[in-house]
Amino acid sequence: MIDREYTEKRSYMRMNMDAPATVELDGTRKHCTCRDLSAVGMLLELDEAVALETELRVHVPAFSNQFSPLDANVRVTRVNELDDNRYRLGVEIIEMLYGRRPRSQWPSAAGAATGPALPPSG
Questions:
Q1: Which class is domain 15-109?
Q2: CB within 8 A of 31, min separation 6: which ones?
Q3: Rounded CA Rg of the chain
Q4: DSSP labels for 21-66?
Q5: Going by DSSP bridges, is the β-strand pair 70-81/28-37 parallel, antiparallel, or unpaired?
Q6: Ranges under pLDDT 50 in the chain
Q7: Three-state DSSP class for 120?
Q8: Going by C-beta distance under 8 Å and a sequence separation of 6 or more, which residues neighbour residue 5?
Q9: Which of 3, 38, 60, 74 is an S-S bond match for 12, by CB 3.0 to 4.6 Å?
Q10: Which of 53, 56, 21 is nearest to 37 (CA)?
Q11: What is the pTM of this model?
């Protein structure tokens, strides 16, 4: 039965992405997938559990010259274990890292297909 009384409680729409991404956790870079993105958060999928309230740095590469890559500091607000020893992390965006590096240092879309690298910290 479909609940026709359902109303979306989120203030921001989500954009489905399924894009390769990279997170930095305790100085180690790990490949993950960004499943969706909104103005205030994202859903990441990776092969490692991460504790609630952990802060991570996320990089989602640009796959077109029309867009900038996404670099952000995020905080884990939800963790769900999937059946295949993978985890989905709901994260809130703490800080967008706009303009922290020149466009010439952005990873290429071709490099992203094999696993994007995070830009240098700092």
A1: mainly beta
A2: 20, 21, 22, 46, 115, 116
A3: 15
A4: EEEEETTEEEEEEEEEE-SSEEEEEESS---TT-EEEEEE--SSTT
A5: unpaired
A6: 1-4, 6-7, 106, 108-116
A7: coil
A8: none
A9: 38
A10: 21
A11: 0.70
Q: How many CB atoms lie within 10 A of CB 45?
A: 16
The tokens for 76 are 């884990």
Residue type present at position 89: L
CA distance 55 to 39: 18
Which amino acid is present at 2? I
Q: What is the pLDDT of residue 12?
A: 65
Structure tokens, 113: 């297909």
- Domain segments of the chain: what residues? 15-109
Q: Which two tokens stand for residue 121?
A: 């910290």
